[in-house]
Amino acid sequence: MLARLYESIELLIRGVDLLKVRVFLFVTVFAMVAPSAETESAPDEIVRNYCAASRDQATEFKGASMEVEIHGTLPKLKKSGALRALRRISSLGRITYQVLGFEGDRTVQKEVIARYIEAEIDAQKESTAALAVTPDNYKFHFKGRRQLEGRNTFLFEVTPRKKRDGLFRGDVWIDAATYLKVQESGYFVKTRSLFLKRVEFTRQYEIRDGMSVPTRTESVADVRLIGKAELTIDYSNYSPGDELEEAGAQ
Q1: How far apart are CA 81 and CA 86, in angstroms?
Q2: What is the CA radius of gyration of the chain?
């Protein structure tokens, strides 16, 4: 009688152990499969949210203005200069500059700073949609989550689908809370000028009142004949379009 009881208890223990093994295997397999499915779907959703946030912001920027200080240097020639200006975005999205002052070498003003402003204004001749960082123009490759100056971001590598002027190859950091861009960096895949061999840049943005406002741009251009041309642009005193309209109405 006792022998049968011991045998029954032993079978019961074996059954419990087998159940534990089955549960362990199921949890392990699920843990291996679930993250891969999430990794495949989450980046697409991030990009969709980023595109939606960018479209909304483009409308909000119309009519806005900000002050800029553009520092240019030609290290090979040991020349430098700085220009202060008011940068405005019209209700149609067109960018204009009102020069407030300049100090430094006139060669830098003409060959570096003026050419940058001219290139930015000329770029407006292209359709905004044709230059937008969207899946229509770029391939997005998710590189993971990153911390950028204390902010949680999603990092994407972007590659142009076509080699077109104004498009770049590099990285985009997207704020995890608002899906607005906080930084872009890379190099332009094509330049209009025969004197420019390569242009690299980093653009930094600050999330302010639900807007991705530019704070700083650093650029290095490899220019034929004169070597490197370095450009740093600091943005300040951003004013939304509605504030300008209210001020003008008073």
Answers
A1: 17
A2: 27
Answer whether residue 40 shows pLDDT above 60.
Answer: no
By CB atoms closer than 10 A (0-12, 13-18, 19+), residue 127 is: exposed
The third-level CATH classification (topology) of the domain covering 53-249 is: outer membrane lipoprotein receptor (LolB), chain A (2.50.20)
- Exposure string of 23-62, with b = 16+ CB inside 10 Å and e = fewer, is eeeeeeeeeeeeeeeeeeeebeebbeebbebbeebeeeee
Q: Are 227 and 75 in contact (CB under 8 A)?
A: yes
- Tell me which H or E stretch contains 190: none
pLDDT at 194: 64
Burial class (CB in 10 A: 0-12, 13-18, 19+), 1: exposed
Amino acid at 215: T
CB distance 184 to 157 below 8 Å: no
Q: What is the pTM of this model?
A: 0.77
Strands 95-104 and 138-148: unpaired
Average pLDDT score over the chain: 82
CA distance linking residue 244 with residue 89, whole number of Å: 11
- How many angstroms from the chain centroid is the CA of residue 89? 20
Amino acid at 177: A
22 pLDDT exceeds 60?
no
Distance CA 205, CA 116 (A): 19
pLDDT, residue 63, reads: 86
Domain ranges of the chain: 53-249
